[in-house]
Design a protein that fits this description.
The mean pLDDT is 96. A three-stranded parallel β-sheet has the order 2-1-3, with helices on one face. Strand 1, helix 1 and strand 2 form a beta-alpha-beta unit. The longest helix is centred in the last third of the chain and has 16 residues. The protein is an alpha/beta fold and 68 residues long. 38% of the residues lie in helices and 12% in strands. It has two helices and three strands; from the N terminus they run βαβαβ. The two termini are 23 Å apart.
Length: 68
């Protein structure tokens, strides 16, 4: 199964490379703005989900990882 990182973060790429498993990187194109009154944990969860959902339609047979 193909693994796709829904993030262009160099740091996250390095973390996955350390695992030694092949993966692809896809730019999710998600605007990373904090919503008014949004807690940091809520923002991270929302953005991670948005990134994964943005990339998933392009990789229907892959495991997509969204993170923030």
């Amino acid at each position: 199964m193909q693994l796709v990182l829904a993030s262009t973060s160099p740091y996250r790429r390095v973390l996955l490379e350390r695992l030694g498993i092949p993966f692809s990187v896809a730019d999710p194109g998600v605007v990373e703005e904090r919503l008014s009154g949004e807690a940091p944990e809520s923002m991270a969860r929302r953005l991670a989900q948005a990134k994964a959902l943005a990339v998933a339609p392009r990789f229907r047979e892959a495991l997509v990882i969204g993170c923030d």
